[in-house]
From TrEMBL:
<feature type="compositionally biased region" description="Basic and acidic residues">
    <location>
        <begin position="150"/>
        <end position="166"/>
    </location>
</feature>
<feature type="compositionally biased region" description="Polar residues">
    <location>
        <begin position="75"/>
        <end position="96"/>
    </location>
</feature>
<feature type="compositionally biased region" description="Polar residues">
    <location>
        <begin position="111"/>
        <end position="131"/>
    </location>
</feature>
<feature type="region of interest" description="Disordered">
    <location>
        <begin position="70"/>
        <end position="169"/>
    </location>
</feature>
<protein>
    <submittedName>
        <fullName>Uncharacterized protein</fullName>
    </submittedName>
</protein>
Length: 510
């Protein structure tokens, strides 16, 4: 060894020099090692597999309890009517909790398909933005962040939004509570509880704030931020003023969503059904999966005449953020109902994999862009929506919320102040609602998300019409008819009580 080399290895600076050389060599070899590891992971990790080779996995909670032989909810029952019975503890990860629990029944005939394939649910199989497709890492995004993003999306695909008990308890405890004398059982749900009864024809007009007050309605002052839970006499939470995140970026996002609404709508001439409806005279576009009256099966409302506008709004990151917040609020305040939505809709999108999900991180299969510039609804109910579920309404625009834009909930006799950027969850199928007019120089729009109850009926009947079910399986059809009157109460039992939300550890399954 030369003297200079010996000096390098026998002095402190020399040893540091040698260590630096080793680090440099390893650093040069690291990218190749990472690439090899990624290639090996891609060969085995399901999140990198193609959609065609993706193997569907059973839905969460589709299994049998070890302590009983009962079939759990939505597990593809056989011809036996036992499969239609109700299991109050399904999917409850904390069923041993000592807190008070509500006995929750499984909605009758929730999965009558004889095919075992129907119970194999791949929640991302039909999602055009799902992680089952190989996703390329965007330029400048670190690998670790990219992989975390994929894991989060996989977790959402499997479980959806779900606040843990501690967080849910904190939100429910800090929320304001408004008691009502509303009898939920008396709300106008249709027989079978897939939709609401037809409403009487209401006067097609909007009311000013003074006119609404003159009718005896009371103003409910709300800052648009603090959550407010409306509870029935039995402590059931049936409507929530869900507020908004305490984040200035979210406020800015809501403002940008309204600007996007205005920008897209200004470039289009709306006519016919897009220019107004029984709900009011304003431009509106419905998008998503629906099964309305007269449709043989669920279809995608693609709005082909305004496809470019719809595509731009669905891809808008701020619209997606607002959609995700509304879905998360639904999961927080009505976790059992949310899980019912997810279980049934996962089956639908798996069985009819040509139908797309409109938002990657929202449970709702359909939405309405009420574009404005003056969105003021008349008194109405959305009868086709799930009567025991919740729809989200998010106000947008530039208006004074103390003078107009309020949400009137007629059965409660309330005129609720509704600032732009805020979110309200309510059963729009059974509670009639409308808006207070705004000023002539003001602008208002809204973004709503919902789910038609006919989608659940389609799944419950084995992906067929009632007529087809009657012809193909008379025994099951007879059982469906027998249990139909019970379904409304079963749906109401999915709603949570305020005590459950505060205490945690309640049955979050369906």
């Amino acid at each position: 060894m030369a003297d200079c080399d010996y000096a390098r290895f026998t002095t402190r600076s020399g040893r540091a020099y040698a260590l630096c050389r080793k680090v440099a060599v390893y650093a040069l070899q690291l990218p190749a090692a990472i690439l090899a590891a990624m290639q090996q992971e891609a060969a085995t990790d399901v999140c990198f597999a193609s959609e065609q080779s993706f193997t569907p996995v059973p839905a969460v909670c589709i299994h049998r309890r070890a302590d009983s032989g009962d079939e759990l909810p939505y597990s593809s029952p056989s011809e036996s009517t036992e499969a239609l019975q109700l299991n109050p503890s399904a999917c409850d990860p904390s069923s041993t909790s000592k807190k008070r629990k509500r006995v929750v029944d499984e909605p009758p005939y929730s999965s009558p398909s004889d095919s075992t394939e129907a119970s194999q649910v791949n929640p991302s199989a039909c999602d055009p933005s799902s992680t089952s497709k190989k996703r390329k890492r965007a330029a400048g995004v670190p690998l670790s962040r990219h992989l975390r993003s994929i894991r989060r999306e996989e977790e959402f695909a499997a479980h959806g939004h779900g606040a843990n008990d501690k967080r849910r308890s904190k939100i429910a405890t800090q929320a304001a509570v408004e008691g009502t004398d509303l009898g939920l059982k008396e709300l106008p749900a249709a027989n079978g509880a897939y939709e609401a009864r037809r409403e009487e024809e209401c006067e097609g007009r909007a009311y000013t704030l003074d006119e609404a007050k003159a009718l005896g309605l009371k103003v409910f002052h709300w800052d648009g931020r603090q959550p407010v839970a409306f509870v029935a006499p039995d402590d059931t939470v049936f409507m929530v003023l869900a507020g908004r995140p305490n984040d200035a970026d979210y406020d800015a996002a809501a403002s940008r969503v309204y600007e996007a609404f205005r920008k897209e709508s200004d470039s289009v001439q709306f006519t016919g059904k897009y220019a107004g409806s029984r709900r009011g005279v304003f431009s509106v576009i419905n998008v998503g999966v629906s099964r309305g009256q007269g449709l043989a099966e669920p279809v995608y409302l693609g709005c082909h005449s305004h496809e470019k506008l719809v595509s731009a709004l669905l891809k808008n990151k701020d619209v997606q953020r607002m959609a995700s917040y509304a879905s998360a609020a639904f999961a927080t305040w009505a976790p059992r109902t949310y899980n019912y939505y997810k279980t049934q809709l996962d089956k639908l999108f798996h069985h009819m994999n040509h139908l797309p999900r409109i938002f990657r991180r929202s449970i709702f299969p359909a939405a309405a862009f009420n574009l404005g510039p003056s969105v003021v609804t008349f008194r109405h109910r959305d009868m086709k929506n799930c009567p025991f579920g919740m729809c989200s309404i998010q106000a947008l625009g530039k208006f004074d919320p103390t003078k107009g834009g309020h949400l009137i909930v007629w059965e409660l006799g309330l005129i609720i102040k509704f600032p732009a950027g805020s979110t309200i969850l309510l059963p729009s199928a059974t509670l009639s609602h409308s808006n207070v007019t705004i000023g002539k120089d003001e602008e208002r729009a809204s973004f709503t998300q919902f789910c038609h109850g006919g989608l659940f009926r389609w799944v419950d009947y084995g992906f067929q019409t009632e007529k087809s079910l009657c012809e193909s399986n008379p025994t099951l059809y007879a059982e469906v008819c027998r249990l139909r009157p019970q379904r409304w109460q079963v749906g109401l039992n999915l709603l949570s009580t305020l005590d459950e939300l505060k205490c945690g550890g309640f049955d979050s399954g369906v």
